[in-house]
Amino acid sequence: MTRNEETMTTNNFHVSIVDLPRQVGSMKEFDVTAPAPNDMGTAVIGARPGSPIEAHGTLTSVEDGVLASGSATIDVHGECVRCLGDVDQTQTVSFNELYVFPTAAIKHAEDGDDEARDLFEVGENSLDLEPAIRDALVLRLPFKPLCDDNCEGLCSECGERFADLPDDHVHEVIDPRWASLGTLLNQAQADADGQAGSGQDGGK
Length: 204
Ligand SMILES: [Zn+2]
Ligand SMILES: [Zn+2]
Prior knowledge:
By secondary structure, the protein is an alpha+beta fold. The chain contains 3 helices and 9 strands, in the order E-E-E-E-E-E-E-H-E-E-H-H. The strands form 2 sheets. Strands 1, 3, 4, 5, 6, 7 and 8 form a 7-stranded mixed β-sheet that branches. The longest helix has 28 residues, at 176-203. It is rod-shaped and about 100 Å long. Bound molecules: zinc ion (2 copies). One zinc ion binds next to loops.
């Protein structure tokens, strides 16, 4: 059994670094599956909380920290902006993030390196992949999720999804100038039906 590889299901995306030598260029593979946290995504689409996210890749020791590269597979759920129907996708995202040692982060900050504030930090014994996965996913998620690129949305008359309606779905829009004529015709039809009805009754 090799100690270089981890395949595990955990509560979070922490990958142990105790077995990753600090020597630059040392590598370790990881394969982690953990439930999605609540905020994995944007306001309109994101991972279903608790759904499993699988991430795998390699950690590489570098001068100031650890480089985490890999990919994650995430089931996302949202609502179509046109028809409000479900949008369910499986996203596979890649990440390649530098995690710096806390000492290096402090040094960067002291040097006035503003970008240092955005760097992820290596924890004491582990490295948390969650922010790397979240950043990669958010970049990939659509601003306006669609159930289908050709989604026609909702019928403005009845509010039904066009996808659920027959192709020839239309609502009779009667020109008001003809509306009174239509009423007269309907009335005449009703009268005729009424007479036919009474005629039948009489025949019995
Ligand atoms: Zn839609
Ligand atoms: Zn309609």
